User: Fold this.
Amino acid sequence: MLGIFGYLLFALLAVGGESSVHQAYLQQHKQEINLSAEDEFSLFDSAFYQNQIFILAEVHGFAAPQELDYRLLKHLNQQTGLRYYLAEVDYSQAHFLNQYLQTGDEPLLSYVFQTWVKMNAQWGNKNYYNKLKKIYQLNQQLPEERRISIVGVDKIQDIAVTNQFLREIIGKPTYAILNPNGFDTLHTYLETDTISLQQYGLFSQSLLSSIQQDSTFSSLPDTEKFDLLHVLRNISYFAQPSPRDSIMYINLQAVVKEKHLEHEKMYGLWGYGHTLPSTFNGRKSFVHFLKENIHFSGKVLAMNTFAIDSENMIPARSMPEWLTKTEIPDKKLSYISTTWVNSNGPLAFVKGIKDLQATSRENTITLFQMDGNNSPYKNSSLLINTRVPIPGQTIIPDREDLTIAEAFPYVFLIRNSAALQPLE
Assistant:
């Protein structure tokens, strides 16, 4: 009984009440989004489009952000000529996804998605899969110079996919002239899956040094040199634990420099934990790194999504076993759909969410501007903290003065979204 009372008190305090001041502001700075319309983001002001990197944050598992993500990508392509989709995928996965976007060869798309299905990850869903098919179809309607490609900066997600890309790289005729110490061993690594990733990482460190000292290596085309060195460098990160977000940032810096993207606009959909411009629990996010970069300073804009009355697809591996059992003996569900992770509870609570709910309608996506003139959110802690009654899951910025207006000048409230659909 005390436990139930404690939870109810926690939920009441965590989600908070309503504010007439905040609701009056929201009524004047909102737009209900029609995803079927061609010019659906009229709330964005001219300053919005001056940014260079646009990030949409989400809690993975809801279906609506995938459709919203596609519409934002298409809108930015139309309005600014943006061509680069900055994705939460690794460099090798991006290679095969870009091959798909160029050729329409769907087995390439399936090949990448098998990683997430095998990992029982939320990225392994039909909605994301179909979104990439829509991007391919969009590219077919665009002139070549405006077609969208994927920039992959994540740490390696599937070593098998990385090894396949490595086989392509060193299988090119230009690599026949190379014979640095360790190349024979690399072929061995590529043909076995029994070597530990830490051992592979240590080997990659030594191979990188050997290759760069090879006198013939400098004669290779720059692109081929970069691909090999960049992939090996990412394998080398297995040698010792490295923060994922810092690897993402280092990878983006390398790709931007190699592909001369210093002045190109980029956009992508990212998990919420990668997007706060402040440390939380001592951890620095990808967006935090970006905003500290001199080149990108003042040119990075993150938008957040909140969800209420919506269903979420959660991997079964993260759930208690009794929830994933089926009536078939020895069979378990891969995913379950739940309403537990909405922004108004019962597991996650965002104080101030009731004001967004009060100024929106059911079954809609509503865009709100947080940093408009006389915004009360510029001096308020509302909407910036996510409290979870599970140790280690609460997300509160370490910077006490961080506001939602600074962190996410625009937010979307998603109401009554379906869950993502698993990709079998």
Summary: Residues 15-86+265-415 form a domain with the EreA/ChaN-like  fold fold (CATH 3.40.1660.10). The mean pLDDT is 90.
